[in-house]
Write a structure and sequence with these properties.
The chain is of the alpha/beta class. Helix content is 22%, strand content 30%. It has nine helices and 19 strands. The protein has a six-stranded mixed beta sheet with strand order 5-6-7-3-8-9, with helices on both faces. Strands 12, 14, 15, 17, 18 and 19 form a six-stranded mixed beta sheet that branches. Strand 14 and strand 15 form a beta hairpin.
């Protein structure tokens, strides 16, 4: 017997902009009749007046393909990560798999019982207590009362909501809501568990419990599909990942191969980010002009740097209003999305010796330069998020993972070992060996 539990073949989902059902059959028929007669839609929304004229017929621009020719398979016991930028089509795919909405074209075959947690409190009624919602949600997932009673204590204990289990969930915080909802979905005996980006609501301790629970679910031979923007969670939990971009799958393979592709998809790889004048990010206070990666001795930006030399990051920006106190900062991530460091010329990161710190910036263009010491980073790819803000800590511009660079190990630091070194940094620490007395 095949171990494939989900098979998706040439799946597409199309949405038409601006046209929805009126909710009443008589009105829908009236709309259709007026359209045949060439008359305006009697239930036209005000929004349509500036999107399209009432007499115009739908065009290609009125149609959005949320998914286009998506095909993949999920095997029993497999933990699959689905990643992609916002608007790529991830949630649409999960809604189709969960039968919340139907596909426009394509086929889906699911073998086994499926439970999904697509948003906080899916299947919960706010007026019912936590206890009542466990039974309600369990019934929605197709479980018998005996099954729910069997796992009831485990569900409550895992959620940490035992003290409030007989309180209406409308009084729960969003964290309590999602903890109880996830506990129900994770403990009831389904063959397939689908989890959207809902774990971000919980605290760090609960997120670790969720990751551990999903790992246990996979070991029991059940399949898990996870959508998350947390690449560390995807990397630790999943063995395989799918990267979706503009409604289509552009990569499907081992998680350690797909995650770097996702992180690099939005990054400049020339060592220089310099947008054209009409696309300069910013607002009426400040504009980000460029971000440059280089090293000592280099006459131009470079995306490939020597591990033994300092990495120089230059951020150029324009102050548009007199008297602002501006600061710049960066987030640095490795290829798996782990934040290596954050640094900047604000009080939290630097001393007050900078002659510009604490002083008002006249209108004009400025360049801030930061250095990462040589032999500090490990070899591999790193992504830079530039930040420009107004003190104290009022971020104005933040471009996540906007530029990347590769660190290459030339062997200058180590003379005897050239194997793979683990970790995101490997600074040369002082070590000393002495003979100890017997």
């Amino acid at each position: 017997m095949s171990d494939i539990v989900i098979q998706v073949s040439e799946l597409s989902k199309q949405y038409r902009l601006g046209e929805i059902s009126t909710g009443v059959l008589v009105r829908d028929l009236n709309r259709w009749w007026q359209k045949l007669r060439g008359r305006p839609d009697p239930y036209e929304r005000i929004r349509d007046n500036y999107v399209t004229s009432a007499k115009s017929s739908p065009t290609a621009t009125d149609v959005v393909l949320a998914l286009e020719n998506v095909s993949f398979e999920v095997r029993q016991g497999e933990v699959l990560g689905i990643i992609g930028r916002n608007g790529a089509g991830k949630s649409t795919l999960l809604k189709i798999l969960s039968r919340v909405t139907s596909p426009t074209t394509g086929n889906i075959k699911v073998r086994g019982r499926l439970a999904s947690l697509l948003e906080v409190g899916t299947g919960f009624h706010p007026e019912l207590t936590g206890r009542e919602n466990i039974f309600l949600n369990g019934a929605i997932l197709g479980m018998s009362k005996a099954d729910i009673l069997k796992h009831f204590d485990e569900i409550v204990d895992f959620s940490g909501c035992g003290q409030f289990i007989d309180t209406p969930v409308k009084r729960y915080s969003s964290g309590m809501y999602v903890r109880l909802a996830f506990s129900v979905a994770a403990h009831l005996k389904t063959d397939i568990l689908i989890v959207d980006e809902v774990l971000a609501v919980g605290d760090m301790e609960f997120q670790k419990k969720c990751l551990g629970r999903m790992g246990e679910v996979a070991k029991q031979g059940r399949s898990v599909l996870v959508v998350s923007h947390n690449m560390a969670s995807i990397s630790s939990l999943c063995s395989r990942a799918i990267l979706i971009q503009k409604g289509g799958i552009i990569a499907d393979g081992k998680v350690e191969e797909v995650v770097p592709l996702y992180l690099q998809s939005g990054a400049e790889q020339s060592g220089l980010f310099k947008p054209p004048p009409e696309e300069i990010p910013g607002n009426e206070l400040v504009q980000l002009l460029s971000v440059e990666i280089t090293q000592d001795g280099a006459n131009c930006p470079c995306a490939d740097v020597d591990i033994a030399k300092d990495v120089i990051i230059r951020i150029s920006y324009r102050c548009l209003r007199e008297g602002l106190q501006l600061y710049t900062a960066i987030w640095l991530k490795d290829s798996m999305g782990t934040v290596v460091l954050c640094s900047g010329n604000a009080p939290d990161f630097n001393s007050l010796e900078d002659p510009w710190w604490g002083k008002a910036h006249p209108v004009g263009v400025y360049c801030t330069e930061g250095r990462i010491a040589g032999n500090f980073l490990n070899y591999g790819r790193y992504l830079v998020t530039p930040i420009v803000g107004i003190t104290p800590s009022k971020t104005q511009i933040l471009l996540e993972d906007k530029i990347s660079f590769d660190v290459h190990d030339t062997g200058s630091m180590r003379k005897t070992y050239f194997g793979h070194r683990i970790g995101v940094v490997h600074p040369p620490l002082p070590w000393q060996t002495e003979r100890a007395p017997e």
